[in-house]
Amino acid sequence: MDGALFDWINGFAGRAHGLDLIMAGLARYSVYLFALYLLLLWLAPGGSLGERRKRRLLVLRAGVAGVVSLGLGATIGHFIARPRPFVARSTAKLLIPHLPDASFPSDHGTLETALTMELRRAGPLVLPVFGLLTLLTMFARVFAGVHYPGDMLGALLVALAGNALVAFAWPWLEPPALRLVGLWESMAQRLGIESTAPASRQK
Q1: Fold category of 2-190 in CATH
Q2: What is the chain's mean pLDDT, rounded?
Q3: Angle of helix 149-190 relative to helix 2-10, nearest 10 degrees?
Q4: pLDDT at 132 over 90
């Protein structure tokens, strides 16, 4: 069934040049939109020093969740080592260059899901906007011939597990994260790019 669903989705590739460009762009570059948003959250000047600290802790927590989830995915991929569809299926249409490494689970799907789950705390629009972007990326990578739909389901489950591990460990991870944020604040204040107003400790 997974193969049949892949064939159906990937079968639309090559029919419309404009659609191919959109899907290829999403499949390759959507993750940079997440990176840009993380950077903006970290550097955004608005609010008090305490509010900025809270945002930066969220950025660090999201980053840790992404790394943990990718680590889990890499471990699973090492043992499962499922071939990419463009390797295993002669009819697959490949729209983007890709190494013939393990297909399951999707790294892009795992990372974007993990980041979306953490960043949803940043505001009410984050979950619908980045959740939709993640779903479109998952679809695009199947469309582009580099993943099966089942790889995306695996990515979702791996991200859920990774975020759960970070939630469990965060009471121990938050103190060093606060120190990292404090180091940045100290440097930014010395450079005169942030207010030196006292900030309350955020938890």
Answers
A1: Vanadium-containing Chloroperoxidase; domain 1 (1.20.144)
A2: 92
A3: 70
A4: yes
